[in-house]
Amino acid sequence: MSGVGGGATQSPPLLELRDVGKDYGSVIALDGISTTVRAGEVTCVLGDNGAGKSTLIKILSGVHRPDRGELLLDGRPVAFGAPRDALDAGIATVYQDLAMIPLMAIWRNFFLGAEPTRGWGPFRRFDAATARETTRRALAEMGIDLRDPDQPVGTLSGGERQSVAIARAVHFGARVLILDEPTSALGVKQAGVVLRYVAQARDRGVGVVLITHNPHHAYPVGDRFLLLNRGRSLGSFAKGEVDRDELTRLMAGGAELDQLTHELERPPS
């Protein structure tokens, strides 16, 4: 188990879940979920379809309140009544659809809903020059080199769109960044691009929650791994407590995978 040596005190996690549960009628969507998200670390939440990942995202992002347990921010209990409350607390969520408009320029999407203005009263107008330059600078600070901030978002690759969404969240002050399956529809090279920018956000002190069903994407970038199966936790492990093979085995069901392997093996001729 990971710990703090030498009796040093450690600041509370940015975000902590303690025995969180959520029901939908008679269906238990989550039960007894505990983990931590620390500044400058990546907590990976792994599980197959139906494991409870989407419900967990909704709780963390303020869409739903948990029915049991508690959510703590900087060591203090919090209860988000709406997504705006979570965003105001510094918790930003990047969903799979990215909430971008494909025909709009990169810089217009970057400031969508938070447009800078100049002037006052009836003379106030959108400050396009500031938006363009700020977008270019914010992307460059994350190591993102796009050809032209005026190009439509729809012309970017999937990995580039994810990187713009990550840079946007970091620029607008996210302390905790939740990424919903950011590599699920990407090839190996594009997934690598996204993971590189996940690491960039981590290195800038952001606490990242990476939701994924792929342990091969999670393990290189993750510091902690929460495994979900049908709404329940299979454990929350620091990186030093589990290797990639064990992570894959736990996700696949361990004994069930061994049984399947045995069934599928070709008998000796």
From TrEMBL:
<dbReference type="InterPro" id="IPR003439">
    <property type="entry name" value="ABC_transporter-like_ATP-bd"/>
</dbReference>
<dbReference type="GO" id="GO:0005524">
    <property type="term" value="F:ATP binding"/>
</dbReference>
<dbReference type="InterPro" id="IPR027417">
    <property type="entry name" value="P-loop_NTPase"/>
</dbReference>
<feature type="domain" description="ABC transporter">
    <location>
        <begin position="15"/>
        <end position="255"/>
    </location>
</feature>
<dbReference type="Pfam" id="PF00005">
    <property type="entry name" value="ABC_tran"/>
</dbReference>
<protein>
    <submittedName>
        <fullName>Monosaccharide ABC transporter ATP-binding protein, CUT2 family</fullName>
    </submittedName>
</protein>
<dbReference type="GO" id="GO:0016887">
    <property type="term" value="F:ATP hydrolysis activity"/>
</dbReference>
<keyword id="KW-0547">Nucleotide-binding</keyword>
<dbReference type="InterPro" id="IPR003593">
    <property type="entry name" value="AAA+_ATPase"/>
</dbReference>
<dbReference type="InterPro" id="IPR050107">
    <property type="entry name" value="ABC_carbohydrate_import_ATPase"/>
</dbReference>
<keyword id="KW-0067">ATP-binding</keyword>
